[in-house]
Design goal:
By secondary structure, the protein is of the alpha+beta class. It is built from 15 helices and 8 strands.
Length: about 500
Amino acid sequence: MKMKWQIWVYVYATGILILALLGFAGFFTSLTWLSSFGKSYIPMAPFTASCFFILAVPLYWLSEKKMKQWKIITTLLLTSILILIVLFSLADVFFIKSINIEDYLISKLEVINSVPLFRMSPAAKILFVLAGFDLVLFTVFKGFDYKTKLTEYFGGIISILVLISSYIFCVSYLYGKPLLYNMLGTVPMAISTALAFVLFALCMLIIKHELFPVRLLIAKTTHGILLRFILPLVLIPVVLIQVALLFAFDNHSPEPFFITTSLNLIIALIAGWLAVYISKYLSETISLQANKISQSENTLRQSEEKFRNLFESMVQGVVYQDADGNIIDANPSACKILGLTMDQLMGLTSFDTRWKAVDKDGIELTGEQHPAMVSLKTGREVTNFLMGVFNPVINQFVWILVNSIPRFNPDSVKPIMVYTTFLDITALKQANDENKALRDSLEIQVELKTSELNIKIAELESFYQATIDRELRMEELRNELDNQKKKLNNE
């Protein structure tokens, strides 16, 4: 148990012992006012004081973090004996009516205003039985670690019942109309006895602060926090009404007190129950909303982690620029592609001369012609823009394929920022350039070969034509020879 709780246990338990000692002092010295607190009221009975000693001492032990075995056994033994004796005494009061244990133990008997002194009230006996059961239950609960919801709630209800009952007797004295004084043959409860029971009930509730009902009030939960605010708000008016009624009735009979106190207690119990119910309902509603918010936050956090991981690990470079064109964020790939560190990138604009940017034809680009600045100016996306920038780390130009996308606020016309993604396609461009050069070279070679082939073809065609002409001439000559031969033969 924490020190702050233990201190209050010591204070209340010591208060019980002091009241019991005052009861003994009033009995042995005949100064009955020591425990009656008034000449017309009865003092605490010595048997009552003895019972309070038996109940008070274990309270110190129960406040310890761990009870020793002999303390557990002693508490259970003495409390059980007390319960049995008081139960037997109660049975004698209501059923047997011939044996009075106190007459055997205490021969001294006095009467004040027809009320017998130094005898325990039946009401006190009932409360002692309840208090004894409460003490036994918690001793078993703590000493033997026998923890069940039934024993927890049963013990809490007993403590509250003892507190309410003793409170009624205390308030009746405050009204000047103590209960049971007008019932002939019935011993009323002394004010010191009622106060001792109040202290005992408070002490037990503090010792059981981790159990019902105190745990509902001190829990660091939404329910507990709401209950700590709502419960006083509903109980304070009840107490104020009780105080106001204190001066509203005369002193002729106790009925008005009993009626008003009973009504106030009923109202207080109903208000307390409503406070618990309302705070529980509100806490469940708040917890439900908190769970939804927590789930949304977890989903958002997971999405942020997912996109942050993508942002950090993606091959494409990403650069964020504000409305003035200043770089406000970039990913590692952007630093690698551009050949600058994150610190060097932060705050740079498209107008910085270090970029040495050129278009696909190698013509220098001004800052206004960078895709990001075009998007900021026009509010439109720029896609698949090929440009080259100088990388100082590798001391050469890298070629990047750029896409820039402006971002807007819902109520803004101009972009509030722009983010640019770019892919290093230097190797691809070099390959394309090499392919183009090879293609151009092949085209030249093909043209040369074609020209040579055309010349050969022309030569062949010329030779072929000459050959044909010669064959035709030979044919003509043969024909002419044949004609000459025929002429010679004819002659």
